[in-house]
Design a protein that fits this description.
The chain has 9 helices and no strands. By secondary structure, it is an all-alpha fold.
Length: 170
């Protein structure tokens, strides 16, 4: 069953521990108007939707029940934030190097059943398309080293599994 606007509004209001009276004062509307929104016999205008979302610290999409884009709205960890900031600080050659290194890492270390599998399989390869980049010699050299290390790491993992009895037939 889908939650109505009024049900979402009531739920978000209660999560913030506001009474109807407190929230209505905060957004400068009558308490009866807010009650009407929650009961579903009144609809807020765009200005009031904006005020409500700000007061309750939720997005308008959340308030309206619009399905979020899973990939774009995922919370990112502090480590991911640091990586993103570092990436943004790179010049174009550095970004190309990271993109191609990431492509290699994904081919070698990608988790099975990734929640954004479609994006990883269709969109990311377009971004990381090797034919679209012209490498400076030092970037090409670093890329070759990264490929070599990825192959060695992969072989070590296979050896580790094989030696622990993870593969039969030896």
């Amino acid at each position: 069953m889908n939650e109505t606007f009024g049900e979402r509004l009531s739920r978000f209001r209660k999560l913030k521990k506001y009474t109807q009276e407190q929230l209505s004062e905060l957004i400068d509307i009558a308490k009866s108007t807010l009650a009407g929104y929650e009961r579903g016999y009144r609809e807020p205008n765009l200005l009031n939707i904006s005020k409500i979302s700000q007061a309750l610290e939720v997005t308008i999409d959340e308030l309206l029940g619009v399905a979020p884009n899973e990939f774009l709205n995922k919370a990112i960890s502090r480590d991911e934030q640091v990586l993103l900031e570092a990436y943004r600080a790179l010049n174009e050659q550095g970004k190309e190097y990271i993109q191609h290194t990431l492509s290699i890492a994904l081919n070698t270390y990608k988790k099975p059943h990734s929640s954004n599998e479609k994006y990883m399989d269709t969109e990311l390869p377009k971004i990381l398309d090797e034919s679209s980049c012209d490498f400076a010699p030092e970037v090409a050299s670093m890329r070759k080293l990264a490929i070599r290390n990825a192959i060695i790491d992969q072989q070590e993992e296979v050896d580790r599994i094989y030696n622990k009895g993870g593969v039969s037939g030896k």
